[in-house]
Design a protein that fits this description.
alpha+beta, 21% strand, 23% helix, four-stranded mixed beta sheet
């Protein structure tokens, strides 16, 4: 910061005065090399990027259940005695192997063999163990895999490996410019902080843009004519099939419970529930919500119910993010 008396001539007439022009030509600012410099907010990378593309690998999770195939009235799954050529959904038969114990409605059967060409199975008997044979109709029903029972000394089970899903994403460069004008320089000389404030504000803007990209971004491969873009959370959910939209539905506690139950049944986990400010007001009325602050003291001039978590079976207290 400079101390002392300074005179700055910025009007048109003073600038054009020959004496002022002559004096200006003699000036050699101590920090003249800083004027017009382009500041890189993040500096140069220590190691340049070797590729603008990167891959995210995720293992799949197979639900332990299959759908039965359809058959005629009194045949196969609609029969109480048929043990061979029982049809299984062709897209799900790879989930089961020899020895798998299936719970079909209230009947238990054990897989004896699997024919992956005809998408059928044979079972040892109908109504295995303490269950009774039952006819399951002609429509497809869900058979839960509740275990595996093998005959000692006989190894017929087939190996199974979960699949790896590959998602490709791209690097995205974020730029934020800082211009230091003559007025900015004068202000910096007087108060000593203009440059730092401008750079700090630019960094904050860049951070906000990167944070929004992390949520709303879409992937695009870089080229000589277009920049690369990074895929955000919402697009990841769409690609993975992990998002279900209830467009016309109201936000009710029943809807929330059903959603949490579905996640639990498929083996998922819940880290947080994200909602808008408006939905948070509705959430405050839910009976399953964990109460973190209730002010009912008559001596206080305010009272309210503040909720920041939801108690759910299997998940405990789930935090709320607004």
């Amino acid at each position: 910061m400079d101390l002392g008396l300074h005179l700055t001539l910025t009007d048109t007439n003073s600038k054009a005065d020959p004496e002022v022009v002559a004096i200006a030509e003699q000036l050699n600012p101590t920090r003249g090399n800083a004027f017009g410099k382009v500041w890189d907010l993040f500096g140069q990378r220590a190691t340049p990027l070797t590729t603008d593309e990167f891959k995210v690998l995720a293992r799949t999770y197979t639900t332990p259940s299959v759908a039965t195939g359809t058959s005629g009235s009194g045949l196969l799954w609609d029969s109480t005695s048929a043990t061979t050529n029982l049809p299984i959904n062709s897209t799900q038969i790879d989930r089961i192997t020899v020895g798998d114990v299936l719970l079909v409605d209230n009947e238990v059967v054990v897989v004896k063999s699997v024919n992956r060409s005809t998408n059928t199975i044979d079972v040892y008997e109908r109504g295995a163990g303490e269950t009774d044979p039952a006819a399951h109709g002609t429509a497809a029903v869900t058979a839960k895999i509740i275990g595996n029972a093998a005959i000692e000394g006989k190894v017929d089970v087939e190996a199974k490996a979960e699949q790896t899903a590959v998602y490709t994403n791209y690097c995205q460069l974020v730029e934020e410019a800082v211009n230091l004008s003559f007025e900015d320089t004068e202000q910096m000389r007087k108060i000593g902080r203009t440059e730092q404030v401008l750079k700090a504000e630019a960094i904050d803007r860049a951070r906000v843009k990167m944070a929004r990209t992390a949520i709303f971004g879409v992937a695009s491969a870089p080229s000589v004519s277009a920049p690369g873009m990074t895929r955000g959370l919402q697009q990841w959910l769409k690609l993975s099939g992990g998002i279900t939209t209830n467009v016309g539905g109201a936000f009710t506690e029943t809807a929330l419970k059903n959603m949490l139950q579905t996640i639990r049944q498929t083996g998922g986990n819940v880290n947080a529930i994200v909602m808008s400010v408006a939905k948070k007001m509705t959430f405050n009325t839910f009976t399953g919500a964990g109460v973190t602050a209730v002010n009912l003291d008559a001596k206080q001039n305010s009272a309210g119910r503040i909720l920041d978590s939801y108690l759910a079976d299997g998940f405990g207290a789930i935090p709320i993010v607004v």
